[in-house]
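Protein Entry — a single chain follows
Next Lines — sequence and tokenised fold
***
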Amino acid sequence: MAGLSDEAFERPSGCAGWLVRDLVCHLVIDAQDVLITLATPTDAEPTRDAVTCWEVVDTPAGDDPLSALTVRLAAAYGEPELLVFRLDDVGSAAGRAARLADPACRVATKDQVLTVGDYLSAYVLEWTLHHLDLVTHLPGVAGPAPTRSPTPGRRRMRSPEPRSPRPSPTPTRCGSARGDGPRPRPSGTRSARGRRRSRSS
């Protein structure tokens, strides 16, 4: 995200009715959801796993209240620099929390119980799809790096067992789906982007 021009954020994404900036805002909400869910442990037995947590839904049209709220939130950030800065910080925190979490622990989210491992596996798949959504109309911007072989979860999703094509840990509106502490507020677009590049290297 650090290398994108401000104009790129105004281009459409692969999600119906959302610009790139709106999808980036959705990813901020996703990262917040991970932090909340990992802090919501439960002793209840799992009711879903990384495959069965996907639910069949119609392709969102982009006019539902949650989608409209995401668009307003994205616009409220004003400059894309501030939105990406927020994603960088919250996303880093979610990544740290995920690495520290015990995959065997159970968490509750949206009236479901999953192990941490299954919950995060579903989110990894969703974020991979959203990476593709982000670059759909951005020629020259790389998508997710290919893997040599499918993960066990993805192999299971190819099985003939009934399943749905979208995970429910967080609502999305796309047809395809489902280490670094706080930093000072960026003082300028170019310098802040430089800090992000150095942080991710």
